[in-house]
Automatic annotation (TrEMBL), chains A, B:
Gene designation: leuB
Top class in the EC scheme: oxidoreductase
Segments forming domain Isopropylmalate dehydrogenase-like: 5-344
Family: Belongs to the isocitrate and isopropylmalate dehydrogenases family. LeuB type 2 subfamily.
Catalytic reaction(s) noted: (2R,3S)-3-isopropylmalate + NAD(+) = 4-methyl-2-oxopentanoate + CO2 + NADH
HAMAP family: LeuB_type2
Protein name in UniProt: 3-isopropylmalate dehydrogenase
Compartments (UniProt record): Cytoplasm
Taxonomic superkingdom: Bacteria
Cofactor binding mode and count: Binds 1 Mg(2+) or Mn(2+) ion per subunit.
Binding site for NAD(+): 283-295
Organism ancestry: Bacteria, Bacillati, Actinomycetota, Actinomycetes, Micrococcales
Record flagged with keyword Oxidoreductase: yes
Cofactor(s) the protein needs: Mg(2+); Mn(2+)
Length: 355, 355
């Protein structure tokens, strides 16, 4: 049995509810996979900030680093809460973790499972993965403003892109494409407007492509990519793109493949120097928090990505198969968060009690 | 009769084909509206660059400025054409015109006409307009790179946002929202990540909102906006957003409301200091150029926006009504570019001959 030190950040809103179900599913497959999870809970998010004034202390960060992986629910308070005006939970916690832990791959698969409704009339066979860069681009926080609040205010945001940063994520994307049956990689950027960053991305993809003759490479401007995501999403296999375009495309991708209630993600440090972090793409949804009605599927599918990352692909596939079987029979049934978690865990052999 | 000096830039690929039909429709309504168009053609685009090496000379620009308005088809050569490697037609021509002519409002309506197929299963009543900022943001061209081609390359892109630039486009958007029946304005940005630019946009919208108590104001992150565009596009009325987010959202908006073959746009200088420019959102589509199969509807609807801008809303509505009547009966019929233009012009009373 391998022991895995798992940092658990339930977070705010529906975060704790969905994380509870994700852990239930993890427990259901762990033993068979020869894994034992040693969990440490971290109370972080808007709730913690309101209690203590801290978003993420150095001690928190060091403690998290001592783990093998992280499972995160969702963080963020009620939009517009005046008590949160002084804090940016997203930048100070979520993005801080991604940057400090060098999560340069933000992996976001989109699969439209049979039985799941899509807003698209004829979506076709949707099964692709977005490899979103996680540590550069417009997310670096290198903006600034002068004369704030005056008619002469100027507010700048800088997108920083390095050969170092682009090459490593592009290499990861090619390896991913090469391991998939269709072996197709699409670079998405806006090379005709963002000419410096675009040129770096384009040259990097061209260079790495030479090492992967088996992978068919394609390029789309980000605006055109959104069109294809609604008119022909089945064309995509692996998309590699920058941090901001990846943010936009993956919400859209989630929407067309059954909603972000089903969208999982991994913030991965492939070098293994830092723990990788797995989280649903959705937010903390304070409006439905505490009601037991949040869909835990995205959190559960994030556990599958965690198992993949730990090298337990077979266990990950078991989780995905159980989810696929569950969603196929879901229909319009209004099940609670716990009922969904229980149903999926039961398919994995767990004995789940009454609640 | 008012004489309007119209600069016509047919451009590349399908540009000349669709512009021909747009002018036909303009002719069909001009006299009744008391307008006479004095046209000057400008040969600009990839074709001109390949012939002369010029993208847009100072003389071209001065000559264009001497006009009251501009109708543009589409510019851009065959992607990957090595002879175009040294030129960026998009930046050097299209964006240059938008910036030099201070087109700070890029107006892009999205209407799903009855009878038009949408990729969405149940799109609802889609009728909104995106007011995209046109002269700032990541489009300013203030990027740069060092150590290009080495493993130490750094490529930056700077998004520049000013109170001056944001306020004027936000004011335009509020005026537009206030004049529409639903009076609803949605700011789209990414304030949680792009905190400096986002804060400027947010504060500006809040300040101008105080002058428009009749307009209901809403905010969405750009990623969430893409979700709503496919799950509930009917919720939108006026969207105001920055240059890059507007680029992305309007292609998606075009896709869900019948395809970018129907998407019109106006690059507007509301001050009237410079001529405004009207163009379909689509590109030059070199793959179908010269075949007479391009859909001229977007170019024709751009003529309606031109008429709006000239203060001839009734004539603009006649064009839109003729288009709506045409698309309602279109079905799957495979009509040529000319047939579509003729049919719409005929509805407007034009006598159209055989071709
Ligand atoms: C909350 C926000 C900072 C975050 C992002 O923009 O990356 C979210 O939208 C996501 O996609 O994980
Ligand atoms: C061609 C390109 C520069 C342009 C843009 O990005 O604005 C186009 O996509 C558009 O939307 O008009």
């Amino acid at each position: 049995v391998t022991t895995v030190r798992l940092a658990v950040i339930p977070g705010d809103g529906i975060g704790p509810e969905v994380v509870g179900e994700a852990l239930k599913v993890l427990d259901a497959v762990a033993a068979d996979a020869g894994l034992a999870f040693e969990r440490t809970g971290f109370s972080l998010g808007a709730g913690r900030y309101l209690e203590t004034g801290d978003v993420l202390t150095d001690d928190d960060l060091e403690a998290i680093k001592a783990h093998d992986a992280i499972l995160l629910g969702a963080v963020g308070g009620v939009p517009g809460d005046p008590r949160l005006a002084g804090a940016n939970i997203e930048r100070g916690l979520l993005l801080k973790l991604r940057f400090e832990l060098d999560h340069y791959v933000n992996l976001r698969p989109s699969v439209l499972h049979p039985g799941v409704a899509s807003p698209l009339a004829s979506p076709g066979d949707v099964d692709f993965v977005v490899v979103r860069e996680g540590t550069e681009g417009p997310y670096v926080g290198n903006g600034g403003a002068i004369r704030v609040g005056t008619p002469a205010e100027v507010a700048n945001e800088v997108s920083v892109n390095t050969a170092y940063g682009v090459e490593r994520v592009v290499r990861y994307a090619f390896a991913a494409a090469s391991a998939r049956p269709r072996k197709r990689l699409t670079l998405v950027h806006k090379t005709n407007v963002l000419v410096f960053a675009g040129s770096l991305w384009k040259r990097t993809v061209d260079a790495v492509a030479a090492e992967y003759p088996d992978v068919a490479v394609d390029y789309l401007h980000v605006d055109a990519a959104t069109i294809f995501l609604v008119t022909d999403p089945a064309r995509f296999d692996v998309i590699v793109t920058d941090n901001l375009f990846g943010d936009i495309l993956t919400d859209l991708a989630g929407a067309i493949s059954g909603g972000i209630g089903l969208a999982a993600s991994g913030n991965i440090n492939p070098d293994g120097r830092f723990p990788s972090m797995f989280e649903p793409v959705h937010g903390s949804a304070p409006d439905i928090a505490g009601k037991g009605i949040a869909d835990p599927t995205a959190a559960i599918l994030s556990v599958a990505l965690l198992l993949d990352h730990l090298g337990h692909g077979a266990a990950a596939d078991r989780v995905r198969d159980a989810v696929a079987a569950d969603v196929a029979e879901r229909g319009d049934a209004n099940r609670s968060t716990t009922e969904i978690g229980d149903a999926i865990a039961a398919r994995l052999g767990a004995t789940v009690g009454a609640h």
